[in-house]
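[Meeting: bench + compute handoff]

Bench side (C.D.) handed over the final construct sequence. Compute side (W.E.) agreed to return the predicted structure before the next meeting so the bench team could plan truncations. Sequence as handed over:
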Amino acid sequence: MEQKNLQNCSDCVKLAELETLLEISRLLMSSQSLEHKVSDSLKTLKNYLKLERCSIHLLNDEKKELSIFASIDLTPKQKMLASYKVGEGATGLAASTKEPIVIENIHSDILFLNKTGARRIDDISYIATPMITGDSVVGVLGVNLTKKTALDFEECINFLTIVGSTLAQAIKLESAHKEEKKKLAEQNTYYKSEVLQASNFENIIGESAKMKEVFGVLKK
């Protein structure tokens, strides 16, 4: 009987995982802004799997720094405080090693820096999972585990690796799209400038009404 209950419990967790992935996929295909999509995805992790303080830190390669792109249950001030150098704390270490970092007890492990001051008694553990596309680290997905969390450490790491990779792909695609739009805008500005210069008829002599009419047509 006990074994049957355990099996049922395991099935429930697997179902919750599948429902979470389905909901995140649906959110990423919506027309909302990327930040809203990612924030709602983090809310889904909390609602379906009881993961707390979910956050995504994006990596700035030039500064070698991780700063919050999206999170839940953090104030604007806490978000501002929660930046890490690569290799700093559990979050920075996940980015530098490209490996998940598990803090089993956030109340006693010095690797958990608690920069936001948001740690609560109910929070027990912290997992920082690198968000990787190809060989590149895009950022770090961090979550807190409590007694209500549906997953154990191994399950959580495996699941967050999938979610992190999915979100990293969406973030990278959005970044590439913005960069392409920027280049197109710059090219458009350049070509407009070239056309305006080519349409300068000040050096052409012609004061008659007919010539002025021709200049007007050429400018258009």
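W.E. noted at the follow-up: Confidence is low (pLDDT under 50) at residues 1-8. C.D. will use this when planning the next construct.
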